[in-house]
Write the structure tokens for this entry.
Amino acid sequence: MPSPRPQRLVRSAGALVWRFTDPARVALPGEPIDPADIEVLMVHRPRYHDWSWPKGKTENGESLVAAAVREVEEETGQVITLGAPLTTQRYRLGGGQTKEVHYWVGTPVPEGHSSERLRAPVARAPRTEIDQTAWTAPERAADMLTRRGDRRLLADIVARAREGRLVTTTLLVLRPGQGLTPRLDEAGDARESAAASASSGTPTESAETAVSATPRPAPTPAMVASAAARRAARVERALAKKAESAVALADPPLSRFGLRQALDLIDLLSSFGVARAYASPATRARQSLTPWASMGGGPVTLVDSLDLTASGSYTQIDAEARLGRVRAFAAERLREQASPTVLSIAGSARDAIIEEIRAFASAPVAGGQAPRLRCGQVLVAHVEHGPDGLVVAALETHAVTTKDPAAHARKASKKH
């Protein structure tokens, strides 16, 4: 009897987009909202004869958050940014497949917002796929929705509105993209080895096997001194080259792959509506935000105190004091009720910032394992502001989907 066909996971993403019925009203973090004062955005699918939330499958290896904002714009024409994540929906499809749909709270962006400028144009979905869209009061939407899971998501939105948790602030922590690792080439290593051997009086292999056709005259003192000077100069050049490499390794720029990661980061940052950025002094930290900033994403502020190395202007400050400055900076960013912000941090200061974020997290979030970011990954903290202070209600980890050609080549070579 043949083995059953393994299940295949189909990943999709979407958003529950809401707005005030009064266009002039501004949403404030922590403000309780009467559900009668808001509308939610729904789509009608003629193929299934149902009303649902805008969503769709990921395309070309794009991230889930990029797929969510693209699908909403395709199906409704609304450019949005994402807020807090909602419960992921899972259900069976035909042919042994399981569908997994990731949802976020979504809000339309104001006209001229940077997220609108940063994204590529999106073509509207055909009418055979989506033939109607509607802004609807939550009470009426509950009657229109077909799927039970969609109604549960609506109930979550309504509860968040009443409790003052619908409007959150977002803080992102970025580990910069892959850095360049400088190395002495093989020829340089060979030259250095030969120079070191010569200076120590140890003959190299070529010196041992070399045979002269005619006997050489005995070297004069001047010839010996000149040869020693040349050997010393070669050793000095080799040591200087190694020292330069060590300095570059301490603060390397982005590699070619890291630069591609920085370009792909634009979509991820625009999905959350990031409008401000801070960077540590490391070259990679600044370069990772350069494409986003140059495209009009927002200003990048360099913060010297986010460098915990022993060099720079903070050399004389006690290590504990410098660590305290980093954590205080993170706490200040969390308390701000401002536009979404990204921190591009290289080195151990990033771990200190993540620890500070987890210190404000709710019990379920703080109880999870501390995230370990890879190059190009982003930790997204969603912050709720209430009368008792702030709470980090959700933590997400997202990565750019850049493929490393070098890693692919290494895997291919192992197969052969």
Observations:
- The chain is about 40% helix and 20% strand.
